[in-house]
Amino acid sequence: MKKFFSVLGATVAAIVALVSCQVNEIESATRPMTITASSEFTKTTFNGIHTVWADGDQLHVFYSNGSSWEKAGVFKLSEGEGLSTGKFTCESAKTPSGSATWYAIYTGSSSAVPATPAGSADGDGFVYLGRSNGIDQPAYNDMQKVSSSHCPLYGVAENVASSEELGFSLKQLSSVIEFKVVNNTNGILRVNSLQFNAITDVAGQYYVDVTASEPVFTGVSGKTITDPLVKITEPSDLAQGESAMLYIPVKPFVHTANDLLSVGITGSIDGKMGTRTIELNPTTVAQRTFAAGKIKTVTVNVSGLDMATSTNTVKEVLNGEPNTDYLIEGALVTLVYGKGFFVTDGTGTILAFTSSAPTVKKGDKV
């Protein structure tokens, strides 16, 4: 699913109609079944997701009679690519005949496959809320990459008789933080990445139970993080007073008062690379609440970056003079790949290794 963020706006609503299901128990013989899902703006929750279906989209659909549940099947998009209304088909869907409560989950990822609408443990399948390996944002103010598998959806339709048309109102499971990074320096600021540092886990893989009054999330052991990252693929210059929007989807949570909440900025001022940790210090409950289906704007004022105090030439580094970390001032990045990049300053060329994918790009000065 392609979810494009617009100015203000919306829970994603889906109207789902069942075709040819007429049986009388919670389980029955399998049969072909098609559902129609339409998205609309309701202007009640997510401030700005407009949904259109994309090739490969699929819905995981379940039903229950109150004492047990069954997976009706995985419904794949068959008509409506690029439109807000699409038809989804399952060739061998399980169907009930009496009244049943229905659940739908859109994960946006082929690797995220819920086996139950009441996930809480191994074997139940999971959804992604954000990503533990970071979000790649093409440019400032670009929200398109935030969606898809980073922002799953769910819907519940209670006590639906077999003769009734089934309707889902799909809701967002994730929250999105919009970081407004403001250049309060006296130079030209370029932001390469922003890391959000929380106390609790806020991104990664989660079991999700959508059968309760509100979704319940249980982190998959070893697959959640407290410090999600957004990296800008093509960062550009920000003059003094200008700002840029960076986006990170997270698990809904309420930050505990007085606990540290901060962001780490990596970038450059007038071409010189640096980093800085900036405390956020939210005070009110509203400021500390990151709710599902909401985009919360958090302002980050950058007054400077912390640079290394000593410098070395590439030749000195190659001769082994620095024992540990080093800064080659004014060196030019000539190639980026994997977890490293080559830099040169006229005295030689050296490969610098990083713990993750580099946030610099060819042509940057470090």
List the helices and strands and how they pair.
Elements: E1 2-5, E2 31-38, E3 49-52, E4 58-64, E5 69-79, E6 85-93, E7 100-106, E8 127-129, E9 135-137, E10 153-160, E11 171-172, E12 175-183, E13 189-197, E14 203-209, E15 216-225, E16 229-232, E17 243-250, E18 253-254, E19 262-269, E20 272-279, H1 285-288, E21 289-290, E22 295-302, H2 314-318, E23 332-337, E24 340-344, E25 349-353
Parallel strand pairs: 9-16, 12-22
Antiparallel strand pairs: 1-3, 2-6, 4-5, 4-7, 5-6, 7-10, 8-14, 10-11, 12-17, 13-16, 13-19, 14-15, 18-21, 19-20, 23-24, 24-25
Describe, in plain words, how this protein is organized in 3D.
- The chain is mainly beta and 366 residues long.
- The chain has two helices and 25 strands.
- The longest helix has 5 residues, at 314-318.
- The protein is elongated, with a radius of gyration of 24 Å.
- The two termini are 38 Å apart.
- Residues 3-29, 39-48 and 320-327 have low confidence and may be disordered.
